[in-house]
Write a structure and sequence with these properties.
There is one protein chain. By secondary structure, the chain is mainly α. The chain folds into two domains: 90 residues, no CATH class; 56 residues. It is 65% helix and 9% strand. The protein contains six helices and three strands, in the order ββαβααααα. The longest helix has 31 residues. The chain starts with a strand and ends with a helix. 6% of the residues are buried.
Length: 150
């Protein structure tokens, strides 16, 4: 379950993490609805994630929840509660994964460049290597910004 409170509304997202639970999901949601309404005196919008009809919306909502949960809970605990296949199919997850792959490729390219320079010119001073690293990052940032404008 996840609660998101704004100034005038609470969004209650409920995940069924096991096939059977002691209390049916509908009763749990009703219980939370009543408690939240009494405590905060604002409208509560309950949503059962598994019943969101649009698959992409359902996957993205699960991904957002997993990302936010990562700010408070340990990774293993989150994986116990949320199915990983939901996350992997999410466009948000795919975007994060793609950015990680790009960073890995950039690091490998820099290591390759450094090895080539060392082979060609001998051991390069660490201050020069750091200056190269800064320039490469700056050029990559400029390229990324130009790509976003396209």
């Amino acid at each position: 379950m996840t609660f998101l409170q704004t100034e005038n509304r609470i969004l209650h997202l409920e995940f069924q993490t096991t096939i059977k639970s002691q209390k049916p999901i509908s009763l749990r949601m009703l219980d939370y609805y009543v408690r939240l309404t009494r405590k905060y005196q604002v409208p509560v919008t309950p949503e059962e994630i598994a019943k969101i009809p649009d698959i992409e919306t359902r996957q993205n909502t699960a991904a957002y929840t997993e990302i936010l949960a990562g700010l408070k809970f340990e990774k293993d605990f989150i994986h116990q509660l949320l199915r990983e296949d939901f996350m992997q199919e999410s466009v948000i997850y795919q975007d994060i994964l793609q950015k990680g792959e790009q960073r890995g490729e950039q690091k490998e390219a820099f290591r390759f460049l450094t090895r080539q320079l060392n082979c060609r010119f001998g051991e390069i001073d660490s201050s020069i290597v750091e200056r190269i690293r800064v320039r490469v990052r700056a050029s990559q940032l400029g390229l990324t910004q130009r790509m976003r404008r396209i």
